[in-house]
Every structure is written in C-alpha cells, then in structure tokens.
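Inverse folding, one chain.
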C-alpha cells in the first residue's frame, strides 16, 4: 500500500475506533470460553489473543473476569481475541497445572507467548487495553527513563521521522490507553516514545509541570537535517483522549502554511474542518518573501490552535482596506471573515487565543477621507510593517551573551553590535535589514556583525547604556563606541558602517596628500558612500581650534569623512583657497568645486552644525531620509511637488531663484511623489482636494501655520516666482491653508 493511501486508511480507522468501540463492545461483549485443546487448535496465523486459564470461580477471579469480559469489544477492534480457557482438574500442563499460573493472563501471537501479565495489573478495561497494546507495540513504542535516551533517539531520527513523546504518571491509566491506541494507528508514521519518569518529563516540558498530569509532545525532527539543530517541540494542550490525540496528530501532519489564491470565503482547510480558526496573512508580490516568513513564524506559534494561510492580494480582488494585513475565518457556519490591521506577530497570536477563549474581536473601522495615507504610502511605516517580527537567516551574525560580549569586542578591528528586544516590532524590522547589511559586508576584512537580545541579557545592555530598542553600535579597539542614529534602512546603515570604519579626522602631512584627499584618491574604496569630504586646515599654533575640530570629526564619524592638515605650510592652502585660518574646505565632487569656509571660535557642536549645514544641497530633493536635516534649519520651505523627476528647464529656473541675493532666508527644495509617496499625505493634509502637479508651495512652519500655493495658471519661471514671493512678503496673497503645516513636523 502506498504511504499516502496507508495514511488515509489509518486516519479513517482511528476515527472509527473512538466512535464505534462502545457499540462494538455491546455487540461482541461475550467472553469466549474454550478448553485447552480447543484453544490451541483454533489459533490463526498472525492473530493475537489474550488468554486467561481458569480453574476455579473465587470472588477475586470473578471480578477479574468481569473486567476481562468488558474489554472484549475494545480489543476486538484491534484484531485481538479474548479467551477464557477452562482448565480440567486433572490437567497438569504449563498453563493449567501450576497454582501461580492462575494469577496471570497470557498474550499470544499464533502459538508464541509474547507476555505474561499479573492479573492485578489488569485491574480494569483501560489497564487491559493499554497493557495489551503496549506489549504488542514493543517495536513501535520505545520506553525510556532519561533525557539522554530521548536526545539520542531524536538525533537518530533527524531528517527522517518525527517523534511523539508521551508522559503518563502510571501505566494502565486512561491516558496510557489513549496513547497506545494512537500508536497502534500512527506507529508506522511516527516514532512513539513513552515514559513514566516525572523527572524526565519535567526536564523536557514546561516550568509549570504537573507530575500528576499526563502530557504529550510532537517533536518535529523530520524537518531537521542538521544534527546540531534541535527538534522543534509542540505540546498538546488538550487532555489525552483518543479523539483529542487523533485531532492533534492530524494538525501536526498538516502543512505549516497553506498558500491560497482564491476568495477566503471558499477556502477550507483541516483546521476549519476540526473547528479551529484560520488566519490569513495578506500578501503581495513585492513583499512575498517577508510575508511568507511572517506566516511561518505565526504558524509555529499557533500550531495545534489555528491554521495559517498566505493569501495573495495579486491573485484576487479583495474588497477590503489596503492597510488590512490580517483576516480571520472561524469554523462557525455563516460567520463573516474579519479583516484587521495588526502591528506584529504577538498581536496575531493574541487575537487567536482571545478568539479561542471566546472574547469579542473588534472589526477594523473604515477610515475617513481626512485620515493619513495607507501604511504603504509612508516609507518609514512601510519598513516597520513589512519587516516586523519573524524568523530570519542569521548565519552571518554572531549571537553574544554576558559571557562572550567583552571578549568579542577585542577579536576584530570593528565589531558592530545590534541591541534589540525579541518581542518588539521595530527591533525585528531592524534585525531584518541588519541581515541584509551582513550579506553586503560578507568577506569584508575588519568588520564583524553581532547581536544581543536585551530580553535575554539585560545586564549587558544596561552596561552599554542601551535604554531603548533597537540600537546599533560600532566598537573599535581602543576607542569609544559609535552609535547609529540614522534612518531605518539598509543603505543608510551600510553607509554608516563603511564610514565608521574610516579613521576620522584623517591626519594629512603634505600638500600632495591634501590634493589626493580632496580629489577622492584617499579612501577610494569607500568613495561611493561619501560625496563631499571635509578638510580642516590650521596653523600649528592653533591648538585649541584644532582639538575642537578633532572632537567634531569624531562626532560626525559614520556620516561625514573629515581630514586634518596642521603643518607649517597651511598658509599656502589658505592663500590658494582665499580663506583665513582656521578654515574648512569642502570638496563638492559632483559640482567639481571646492568651497572654503572660515572657522570662528566655536565649540565642537557648533562646528558639527556648521559642517552639516554646508553639506546640505542648494536645491535638494526632499526624502524621508534627509527631511530631518533640512527641517533642522528652521527656515520656511519653498517646495515644488511633482510626480516625476524635474526637467532641466524647471530645475534651472529654480536654481536661479535660489542663487539670487538674499535668498538665504528660506529653503528651496522639491519632492518627487513617485520616489517619496508620503508626499501625497502631505498634500492631502494641506489641501482639501488634490491640486494639479507640479505644484509650488510656500510653507512657513513657524508663522501661524499658513501654506500658500503658486498660481497654477503661471509657468514656474524665475521672474514669476520672484514676483509671487514679493507679493507674499507684502501680504497680498491669500493662504490656501491655515494651521495645518504639522504634516511636515
């Protein structure tokens, strides 16, 4: 018989056992009585029989025979005959001739004796059925007493078979019988293991272990090809009955995640058929891999409690909110499917467990037209949502503990450590991109990546001054650590790590080295990560200013590359670039020019702010990543919204506006809504109806929150824009919006 066919037959027969065993017992609950000669002559090949050889009719024997007769129907379901053999007084054979033999029952297969049972061990029907099946299944059910035996057995079965491990406080109990009945049906599909050792069960199970309660676990060893990896273990939470174990094993055999591409109303799985809920993870092509990992993570958490399906939005037309990411279908006939928005996997698990407990689950409410855009329209929220908690391939990232942390920091030139909390959604989003960074840095000399779960090792995190999650720090031998404060993005973190590995400020000693630094020949392998190197030039006597710049360079490390020149001929550079000392030189490679800026007596934070301000573009494209830098200037915004890149003509007109005299009072910029969809939400906050694009707007965040829009019937030219700005200054323009500039806050 094929394995699949055998599985269907096994499942079907197991259902019949629980449903019809009592009826069968009533119809065939008669104890067969034979003489010794009749019994031994009637034995059939391969058939098992439980036999009691009787010589008297004492009260104790009568009680045993009542229980034996009550077990006839149950044992016949398994093809086991139950016989009472009446011994003649003159019979002196092995089974009838000895007095102590009459205190035992015997289990035969054919005419071969398999086991002798003391009659006091067969005290009721459960004990009779359990002990009889246990003896017959000695190859299918392993009895163990130590955790080492169990671990060795698991290792021997990894990649080949699963293990069903059961603890019963004593043999002969109803739970023991239920486990043996399950092993009779499923013994060829899984390796059954039994113990009555409470100490072993406590080591294997949960902290709230109860030695008086039977327990059963499914060990998923077939999915583990690597001997070094443990088998996942799923406890059975229901009581150990024949029907419950059958249901449990059916659920363990079901796919972890079912992928569907049809209306959820039409989907039916084994979970729904067994009365359990089904959770749909709503996916789309762009996020399929991450959604699949989420579905698998949730499925393992809910294994045995609910099913999980991955539903592709691209395959069907779902008439639900785009921001809905979860759907819940229950087994109740006619019950509507609930579509919800949940932030992380903990919420999904809690949703199902609350449903099992019977708590009311709220429907997701429709959003009004005045609400913000869907999650997918905000790049930051999209990153948090799409990369929430899930299992990740972490082979390239070392896991540190309290014992290994300090030693690890000395093993490489630069050790990068992610401090995170395994329960926190943003931490898992960060962990996702951290994996991507590890892949990008694979093989890079001098940089190693590690992680610390602050939930497991809070003392380590406290000693490293980690008070919020997630935090990424780079540790360098003999130097203080650098903390990443940038955006939640792979490219941004990779840039920070690359630039952090560069010693800053780089100390230059010759004019030739200065030229190489400004042209990008120094640190050429990292040139794609820094477009504008900054050089501080000082006379050797300017010790205080030089030390301030060094401190500022350390503060900017990871974000800006800085160099330092403090030789006797620094005046040559000062004359060359027409700037008094001390000074800054900024090599703007894209524009092929070098800007010079005098440094007055400033503190290190002031120098940092000066450098940051100078590095900002003249007419920048605003993105989620750089918006905080430009808002920090606290200037009114002259912003051009467009749904595509700017053509050269419009760009030149806006640059002419920016480069004119007296234009330092505001920041001119533009936003490509295709690259930065969150801009649509900004426009929605500013205007009751979406305006036509391109749109030029004046946004003053610090003056009563007014927004002015450039006349849509005029072309965007330098002359028209300057004329409009003069009208704004004179108070001749009417604002389009009052008090709603919080969209940019």
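Residues assigned per position:
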């Amino acid at each position: 018989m094929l394995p699949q066919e055998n599985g269907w037959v096994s499942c079907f027969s197991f259902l019949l056992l629980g449903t019809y065993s009592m009826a069968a017992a009533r119809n065939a609950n008669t104890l067969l009585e034979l003489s010794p000669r009749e019994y031994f002559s009637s034995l059939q090949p391969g058939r098992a029989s439980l036999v009691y050889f009787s010589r008297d009719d004492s009260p104790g024997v009568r009680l045993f025979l009542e229980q034996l007769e009550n077990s006839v129907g149950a044992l016949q379901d398994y093809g086991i005959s139950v016989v009472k053999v009446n011994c003649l007084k003159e019979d002196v054979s092995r089974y009838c001739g000895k007095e102590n033999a009459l205190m035992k029952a015997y289990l035969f297969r054919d005419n071969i004796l398999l086991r002798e049972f003391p009659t006091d061990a067969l005290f009721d029907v459960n004990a009779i059925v359990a002990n009889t099946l246990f003896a017959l299944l000695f190859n299918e059910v392993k009895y163990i007493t130590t955790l080492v035996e169990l671990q060795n057995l698991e290792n021997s079965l990894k990649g080949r078979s699963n293990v069903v491990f059961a603890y019963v406080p004593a043999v002969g109990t109803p739970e023991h019988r239920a486990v043996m009945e399950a092993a009779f049906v499923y013994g060829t599909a899984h390796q059954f293991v039994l113990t009555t050792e409470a100490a072993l069960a406590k080591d294997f199970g949960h902290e709230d272990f109860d030695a008086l309660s039977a327990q059963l676990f499914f060990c998923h060893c077939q999915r583990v090809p690597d001997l070094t990896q443990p088998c996942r273990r799923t406890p059975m939470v229901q009581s150990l009955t024949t029907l419950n174990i059958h249901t449990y094993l059916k659920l363990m055999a079901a796919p972890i995640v079912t992928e569907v591409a049809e209306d959820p109303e039409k989907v039916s799985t084994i979970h729904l058929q067994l009365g359990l809920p089904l959770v749909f993870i709503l996916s789309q092509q762009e996020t399929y891999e991450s959604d699949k990992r989420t579905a698998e993570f949730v499925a393992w958490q809910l294994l045995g409690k609910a099913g999980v399906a991955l539903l592709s939005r691209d395959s069907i037309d779902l008439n639900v909110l785009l921001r809905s990411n979860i759907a819940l279908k229950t087994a109740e006939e006619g019950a509507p499917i609930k579509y919800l928005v949940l932030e992380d996997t903990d919420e999904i698990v809690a949703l199902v467990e609350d449903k099992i407990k019977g708590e009311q689950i709220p429907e997701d409410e429709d959003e009004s037209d005045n609400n913000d855009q869907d999650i997918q329209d905000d790049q930051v929220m999209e990153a948090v949502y799409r990369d929430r908690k899930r299992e990740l391939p972490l082979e390239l990232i070392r896991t540190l503990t309290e014992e290994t942390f300090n030693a690890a920091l000395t093993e490489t030139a630069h050790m990068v450590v992610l401090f995170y909390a395994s329960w926190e959604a943003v931490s898992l989003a960060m962990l996702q991109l951290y994996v991507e960074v590890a892949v990008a840095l694979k093989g890079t000399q001098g940089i190693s990546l590690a992680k610390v779960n602050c939930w497991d090792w809070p003392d380590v995190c406290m000693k490293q001054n980690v008070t919020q999650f997630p935090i990424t720090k780079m540790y360098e031998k003999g130097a203080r650590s650098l903390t990443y404060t940038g955006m939640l993005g792979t490219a941004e973190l990779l840039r920070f790590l690359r630039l952090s590995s560069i010693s800053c400020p780089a100390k230059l000693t010759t004019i030739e080295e200065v030229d190489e630094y400004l042209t990008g020949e120094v640190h050429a392998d990292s040139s794609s990560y820094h477009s504008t190197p900054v050089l501080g030039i000082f006379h050797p006597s300017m010790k205080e200013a030089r030390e301030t710049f060094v401190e500022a360079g350390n503060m900017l490390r990871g974000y800006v590359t800085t160099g330092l020149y403090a030789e006797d001929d620094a005046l040559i550079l000062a004359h060359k670039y027409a700037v008094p000392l001390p000074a800054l030189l900024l090599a703007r490679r894209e524009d092929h020019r070098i800007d010079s800026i005098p440094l007055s007596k400033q503190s290190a934070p002031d120098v940092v702010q000066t450098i940051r301000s100078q590095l900002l573009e003249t007419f920048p494209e605003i993105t989620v990543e750089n918006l905080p830098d430009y808002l920090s200037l606290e200037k009114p915004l002259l912003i051009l919204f467009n749904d595509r890149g700017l053509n050269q003509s419009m760009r030149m007109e806006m640059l002419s506006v920016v480069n004119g005299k007296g234009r330092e009072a505001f920041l001119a910029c533009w936003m490509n809504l295709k690259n930065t969809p969150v801009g649509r939400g900004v426009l929605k906050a500013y205007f009751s109806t979406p305006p036509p694009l391109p749109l030029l707007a004046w946004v003053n965040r610090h003056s009563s929150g007014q927004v002015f829009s450039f006349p849509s019937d005029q072309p965007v030219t330098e002359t028209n824009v300057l004329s409009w700005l003069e009208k704004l200054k004179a108070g001749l323009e009417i604002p389009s919006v009052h008090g709603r500039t919080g969209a940019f806050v």
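Residues 3-27 form the longest helix (25 residues). The CA atoms of residues 122 and 307 lie 41 Å apart.
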